[in-house]
Amino acid sequence: METINISAEYPTLFINHQNLQSQKAEAYVKTKYHFVNVVDVVQHKVTPLQWIEISQKCGVALGDLFDRTNALYQEKVHHTSNFDENDLARMLSENPSMIRTPFVVKDGELKFYESATDL
Predict the structure, then answer these.
(1) What is the pLDDT of residues 34-71, one digit of tens each?
(2) Is 6 contained in some domain?
(3) What whole-number distance in Å separates Cα of residue 97 and Cα of residue 4?
């Protein structure tokens, strides 16, 4: 298991390299900050425990990390409400395409990227 270094000194950007919006966010964040920790959720297997820790540190519900427009999310999660935190974390870990990317974690806050002004 790789460690994800979330620091108060610099942002950690979570992306899906297959997503154009993630590529734009990465370029923007790298121009804005001297150092950026980039985590590609497809290439870097984030564990269920790591998703729970990120969620708790940032005060964000695990359910908010899902891309609700994703077809797999619609099929497996959308109409079911009986998942606990561990189930949701496991789904995020096993199905990175369901993660709402890109987002930045900095100073204990998680921000989703819709446009450059969001970061």
Answers:
(1) 899 999 999 999 999 999 999 999 999 999 999 999 99
(2) no
(3) 19
CATH code of the domain in which 60 resides: 3.40.30.10
Taking the CA of residue 87 as centre, how many other CA atoms within 13 Å lie in the half-sphere pointing to its CB? Answer: 8
Residue 85, helix vs strand vs coil? helix
User: In the predicted model, is pLDDT for residue 18 greater than 60?
Assistant: yes
Beta-carbon contacts of residue 102 (< 8 Å; ≥ 6 apart): 13, 14, 15, 16, 19, 21, 22, 25, 26, 112, 113
78 occurs within a structural domain: yes
